[in-house]
From TrEMBL:
Domain HTH arsR-type: 1-93
Keyword list, A-Z: DNA-binding, Transcription, Transcription regulation
InterPro entries attached to this UniProt entry: ArsR-like_HTH, HTH_ArsR_DNA-bd_dom, HTH_MetalResp_TranReg, WH-like_DNA-bd_sf, WH_DNA-bd_sf
Protein name according to UniProt: Metalloregulator ArsR/SmtB family transcription factor
Keyword Transcription attached: yes
Pfam families (UniProt xref): HTH_5
Length: 104
């Protein structure tokens, strides 16, 4: 696998609103599918597919805890990536707001 393919795999895994939401849910704690399902508007099987994509990309890890499978962030640097993008989006929103105010 080429290094460019590795980049693409990570960014593709993060390129879905539900997967971003999943990662944000897991920032401060590990959760099982049933707990994640409470905050995501998809079926459990659909959620499991998203979790698999994130896991295959090396973003999440899972651990069996009795009958539950607990998910957590594998590499905390992904939180930094999301935080950087959050800051970029906030800056864009501020700039748009300022442009609208200057037009009025």
């Amino acid at each position: 696998m080429l290094i460019e393919d590795m980049y693409t795999k990570v960014f593709k895994a993060l390129a879905h609103p539900i997967r971003i939401k999943i990662v944000k849910e897991l920032v401060n704690r590990e959760l099982c599918v049933c707990e994640l399902n409470e905050n995501v508007e998809f079926t459990q099987s659909n959620l499991s597919q998203h979790l698999k994509i994130l896991k295959d990309a090396g973003i999440l890890k899972s651990e069996k805890d009795g009958l539950k499978i607990m998910y957590s962030i594998k590499d905390r640097r992904v939180v930094d990536i999301i935080s950087i993008v959050d800051d970029m989006i906030k800056d864009d929103i501020k700039n748009m707001s300022n442009k609208l105010k200057s037009v009025e």
